Amino acid sequence: MPLALFWFFAVLMLVGGLAVISLRNPVAAALSMVASFVGLAGLFIGLNAYFVGIIQILVYAGAIMVLFLFIIMLLDLKTEEKRTPKVVPIVGGLGIVLAFTIQLLGVLGNTPDTKSQPLDLAAGAAEYTERSPGIAAKLEAGSLPDVNLVGDVIFTGYNLPLQIVGVLLLVATVGVVVLSSRQTT
Amino acid sequence: MASLHSYLLVSGLLFAIGLAGVVLRRNIIVVFMCLELMLSAANLTLVAFSRFNGSNGLPDYNGQMLVFFVITVAAAEVAVGLAIIVALYRARQTIHTDDLTSMRG
């Protein structure tokens, strides 16, 4: 990804994040979170993780955001806006964040940097010629079949975790139904 | 091309923004959104390491697997958390964390 494009998406993501924590209206915060996640998806796609980028848009900017907006609408939060913020928690919170940022800069200054290497698709194709000829053919043709590779890894190496995650989603669904049903007692 | 440090810096800043929101905001729904921001910042770190530590000229897809599982768990967490918020609002008529002090010692 060109450097200018990287900074465009990074700034979009960070400004969206800042808007989430600074806007007082929860609906505006939710919408700026969409902007933040669109920038994040751009960064993912720039890192050649096309499938993760698309999933980020679909799941976060689509499904989760609709859920947030729906709950905000359901609870009618307009009356929550006029409050005077207290000074002590703000100073303490900003202190924690400042300490974290300084720590981050210190760690980044002491670790070796890696320049990004262009993907070597022909070398990657050699690994897949026996196991999956379709993926190898696409790699040799010069395109990165991201979804195929993700599927190959997730269904061969991570089969049990995938099923456990399925059970987790079922448990979450049942839990939500139980929690949101009105108690009759 | 951006280097690994740029991605780590940007993701760390996003995490810091999310952390600031969790600590500073009093609206529990916005706190929840900031939690999502922090999870996404961790995802960006994972994808960046997966791309920069690739094997055989391809990205390391084992790193991206963890991203999928994090996204799934985040989706389940949001669903359950928002249901808890709705139940809380029914019981107390508020979602402002300063008003929810019955468990304070």
- Which structural category fits the helices and strands of chain B? mainly alpha
- Give the structural class of chain A: mainly alpha
Mean pLDDT reading of chain A:
86
Instruction: Give the oligomeric state.
Output: heterodimer
Question: What characteristic shape of chain B results from the CA principal axes?
Answer: elongated
**How would you describe the shape of chain A?**
extended
* Unreliable stretches of chain B: none
Number of helices of chain B: 3
| Biggest contact | A-B, 90 and 74 residues
Helicity of chain A, as a percent range? over 70%
Tell me the radius of gyration of chain B. 18 Å
Q: How does the major sheet of chain A shape up? A: none
Count of individual helical segments of chain A? 8
In what range is the share of β-strand residues of chain B? under 5%
Q: Biggest β-sheet of chain B: count, sense, barrel? A: none
Q: What is the number of E strands of chain B?
A: 0
Low-confidence runs of chain A (pLDDT<50, min 5 residues)? none
Radius of gyration of chain A: 22 Å
Give structural attributes.
heterodimer; A: 185 residues; mainly alpha; B: 105 residues; 0% strand; elongated; NAD (chain B)
Task: Please give a structural write-up.
- The complex is a heterodimer of chains A (about 180) and B (about 100).
- With about 180 residues, chain A is mainly α.
- Chain A is about 75% helix and about 0% strand.
- Chain A contains eight helices and no strands.
- Chain A has helices at about 5-20, 25-45, 50-75, 85-110, 120-130, 135-140, 145-155, 160-180.
- In chain A, helix 1 (about 5-20) runs antiparallel to helix 2 (about 25-45) and helix 5 packs antiparallel against helix 6.
- The longest helix of chain A has 26 residues, at about 50-75.
- Chain B has about 100 residues and is mostly helical.
- Chain B contains three helices and no strands.
- Chain B has helices at about 5-25, 30-50, 60-90.
- In chain B, helix 1 packs antiparallel against helix 2 (about 30-50).
- The radius of gyration of chain B is 18 Å and the shape is elongated.
- The model of chain B has no long low-confidence stretch (mean pLDDT about 90).
- At the A-B interface, helix 1, helix 2, helix 3, helix 4 and helix 5 of A face helix 1, helix 2 and helix 3 of B.
